[in-house]
Amino acid sequence: MRVSAKADYAVRAAAELAAGGDEPVKGERLAEAQDIPLQFLEHILLELKHHGIVRARRGAKGGYWLAKPADEVTIADIVRAVEGPIAHVQSSPPEDIEYKGHAEHLQEVWIAVRANLRAVLEHVTLADLVNGELPPAVKDLAAPADAWAPR
Amino acid sequence: MRVSAKADYAVRAAAELAAGGDEPVKGERLAEAQDIPLQFLEHILLELKHHGIVRARRGAKGGYWLAKPADEVTIADIVRAVEGPIAHVQSSPPEDIEYKGHAEHLQEVWIAVRANLRAVLEHVTLADLVNGELPPAVKDLAAPADAWAPR
DNA sequence: GCGCTCCTGACCAAAAAGGTCAGGAAAGTC
DNA sequence: GACTTTCCTGACCTTTTTGGTCAGGAGCGC
Fold it and tell me: How many CB atoms neighbour CB B54 within 10 A?
């Protein structure tokens, strides 16, 4: 249940692209802005490109930009592009698992977990992220001091 | 963002223990009931024991049982025992991360993600799980057909 | 003292995580 | 048309994690 460096990097780079508007931004600038190893970042950006999330052009004046408006790209889109499906259990989606014995209802629990992950990741767009205007429901989740406490 | 085999196994074994009441249950029976490799399961049960979640006795009539009443043990307790902290980003808890540039508000997003994970995992107890009586809020999350759809 | 069951550490193979390296291919500039 | 710039791609690498197995020891009950 952790977020990989790759996913974190991907979202951060995408946020910089969202802030960059339609102008192409060089990989090098993204790497500097977010302290990401350049060559690793280039692999990540390539994956994002293959998933139709960013576009790119080579050469002088080249760089990367978002394929869609920033308010149409969610964090879930990006995480899925680089990490694959969210909330799989033992490499299978929760709806495919068959539990037996007294664990039968565990399936519902994992479904609920995924639903709650989606509730955040699919509703925060890159535009929200760069403006700091997260959806009210998400802001409310992050507001309580409780939510910031380790455990 | 996936659930490891180990965590899945741990919760399933704990559910069987919850159903077993105060009687010690043999590792072998747990392994059979849930189709878990016995020797792997024993390592997992040992970890649960070290975290004070289960207790055990050796010898004939020995076995494992829950250290606390089933309605006082949450799924989060078990997942944390075997997987460590929930929802870490790059091996650090989200409250410790400092983002720069246009990614600043990403921290709030990860905090919200963790809050929503906790909202499920910390509120479902083993008793709920074996009875199939999940908390209403959790049941509502798992109810919509939408929640069962892949994506 | 004997059988049962947990306890523990060592070991292992495969995959994933987190990168680095070297070179090729397009786009723009002079 | 050469040159520079920047993306594109595959190969490679090390370390950690995952998902186990194996062998033996230690305590418990009879």
Answer: 26
